[in-house]
Amino acid sequence: MGEFEAGTAAEVHPGVKKLADLREGLARVIRGKAEVIDLLCVGLLANGSVLMEDVPGVGKTTLAKALALSVDLTFRRVQFTPDLMPTDILGSSIYNPKDGSFEFRPGPIFCNVLLADEINRASPRTQSALLEAMSEAQATIEGQSRSLPRPFFVLATQNPVDFHGTYPLPEAQLDRFLIYLQLGYPDKDTEVSILFDQSERHPIDDIRPVLSTDELLDMQSKVKEVGVEESVAHYIVEIVQATRSDSRLQLGVSPRGSLMLFRAVQAAAFLDGRDFVTPSDVQSVAAAVLAHRVILTSKARYSHVTKSDVVDEIVSGISVPA
């Protein structure tokens, strides 16, 4: 994703300029992670959930919180632990002894942005409580379907699956996340800057909303109107189908993955201030959208090949449409 161009963006949507302010604000909180911030914004514009995985202490929760504070949305944070129950997320009916009635008390899922912190520390049963919400923006509680506020998306963080006390997310759960990303450690100079940035106060204390709910909903609607030529759509499908025949992959990308990639490239183009998609948009988000949807064969895992490596090689091996 390239640099923001004010003139071009203004023609696409007047609110796109605020996306530049959003990215700049996040960049002051998380130094040296411009690509990660762009992918997070792609998830926001496409109204898709984002999963961030990395070792503790690199800023996953801070980045998620900074994004939530940058948009005027209701925000809830749930710390996932082994004893967390589905009702702790969804809510439940409470008995009122005065009149013998039951009153529903909504859980933290009834918000615009749900931060599921360390999601893989909770049991699979609790993890699955988010499935319906992420797919259909509703939650079925005690047999009754309840709509969630618009927009609704999940920002989840998790520690690497080989850490003690973690439960790997099932494939069905992973497939609901639009974007998967890793922050990684900062380089030496960036880490020195971080020391001075936080010597007196944390930069997140200065975060203020730059987007209103209505502005975000309007932009999410406009993202769906971003033009995608048929040749680019064929390019997307070729990449996806190549994952299904690659010898290193036990499981390729499903049609849901094709739809997710289509949504993401529209958002990536909009973020760059364009109302049309180019093949470079596909290349910029392919690994983040597709890698977590595939499963490596045992041989590939023992060869220390990563899912992102495989997706990147597949993308580079397919002819780019003119």
Automatic annotation (TrEMBL):
Q: Which residues form the ATPase AAA-3 domain?
A: 50-179
Quote the EC number. Answer: 3.6.3.-
What are the GO MF terms of this UniProt record? ATP binding; ATP hydrolysis activity
- Recorded family membership: Belongs to the MoxR family.
Q: What class of enzyme is it?
A: hydrolase
Asked if the keyword Flavoprotein belongs to this entry, the reply reads no
InterPro entries, alphabetically? ATPase_AAA-3, CbbQ/NirQ/NorQ/GpvN, ChlI/MoxR_AAA_lid, P-loop_NTPase
Q: What is the lineage of its organism?
A: Bacteria, Pseudomonadati, Planctomycetota, Planctomycetia, Planctomycetales
What species does this protein belong to? Stratiformator vulcanicus
Q: What is this protein called?
A: ATPase RavA
Domain ChlI/MoxR AAA lid span(s) in chain numbering? 241-314
Q: Does the keyword ATP-binding apply?
A: yes
Which keywords are on file for this protein?
ATP-binding, Hydrolase, Nucleotide-binding
Question: Pfam families, from UniProt?
Answer: AAA_3, AAA_lid_2
Which top-level group of life is the source organism from? Bacteria
